[in-house]
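Need tokens for this chain, all 526 residues.
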Amino acid sequence: MNKCGGRGSAGLGTPWRTAVAVAVPAGVMLLLGLWGLDRGGMWRDEAVTFQVARRSVPQIWLLLHRVDAVHGLYYFLMHAVLALRPGEAVLRLPSVCAAAVAAGLVAALGARLVRPRVGLWAGLLYAVTPLVGHYAQEGRSYAMVAAGTAGATLLLLRALRGRSWWPYGVTLALTCLLHELAVLLVLAHALTLLYARVERSAWPRWAASAGGAVLALMPLAVVSKGQAGQVAWLPRPGADSAERLLHAFLGPTAPVFWTCLVLALLALPGPRRLTPAAVALPWAVVPPLILLAVSQFRPMYDDRYVLYALAGAPLLVAAGADRVLGGVARPAPGVRRAGVLVPLAGTLVVALAFVHQLPLHRRDRTLARPATLAAVSAFAARELRPGDAVVFLPTIGRRAAVTYPRSFRGVRDVALKAPGPVSGTLYGRERGAAELRRDLLALDRLWVAAEPYALESAWYPRNPTERVKLTVVTEEFVPSEPRREFVRDGVSLRLYTRRPAAPARFPPASTGFPAPPAGRPRPAHR
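Here are the structure tokens for all 526 residues:
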């Protein structure tokens, strides 16, 4: 018989209590996700999702051979979603739904491992965590990966209780294909099985399921390794990165952080079976620690890549709270157990934590001004006219135009040779340096869309086309009047005009000869 915990396996409570414990966090997460969903603009990675997902399936497939293979499955899913109705709110809606599912699954795990009230508290804690709310409203795959890892963990517990193993393997494989770094969950699950001392017969079944998921991931891993340059900008993480992640998991504000930390520590001592400590601690700790360690040699760490590990933290906190409240609120002899008082008390504490962190949630959802790309495109729609010449410095600066193409309709993109969908690139293929230089020098007016580092630093690109753009703009053009420019967060869109010809320093010396007749060139001085 599998060692699946004492109270958790036998004390699930009545089915309706478990159902309520799962439904309430999922509903709260859904409401928080829908709050302020349309903020009037996409941020940069969301813009990539938006423009790639609207391409045809063959065009997406062509792109993945060059860049972003790690997001391939997500792009295909979003292609189907945006085919129904392209828009910013629709772009984020799958992440909102995934976050709601994840909150419900965290609650289901707490109910299975301990009792329904622990599931209720854990799911609610997950839902009100600011980091979860942030990625619940982002048009990227991270909320879906978090839901997938929570589902795989729940299916692992079910398999250990005698259910089929293939749902666990399939869910784990799909989650890893959504983002390959989710494969670190396999190591967390291995540590869980080792600590819980599961039966020997479970190991071969787990190894086959987890191994199948890893095997399914291998082709993607091979392709994405050749695209590793896309994350070359990531720095080597330090102690501050680990500290920031710890606060993001347990609470970014001091009162919430210290309360959650103490409660989580109270949950750690426990028997060698499938307890919250055995399941949640490896889940919360192993993926971030491994990625932080590997990134000391090959930087690839970012908080969002291990968002899925956050679910382990509220499980530990809720289990610790259950120990505290379970001991404090023991009914007196002869007094009927207060069925809902303890769950309500814990729920009230979570609500207080949410109120304390409300400014962080509000800051994410109520921007005082539109996002940069939307603001740039709005300025372009007002100021640019059909036929105006524009150059993007560097190529990635074209993302405003590909995200909001209506604002740049009729504008002449001087450097563009083939757009992204046709060339299998994110931002298009540009013309050769010599051809581009000739066309730029033939212009008198030029709009320049520049990234923060392009014109205000010592940036010197290796690409010849980028060097031509930078050299011609800085040497042959000058900014027009200030009212014809837009600058936000360093991103700029300015009108440039040709630099006036410099007057001669010295007057030409008199030769004593009469001027040549009209139509005849004046002899050059030597």
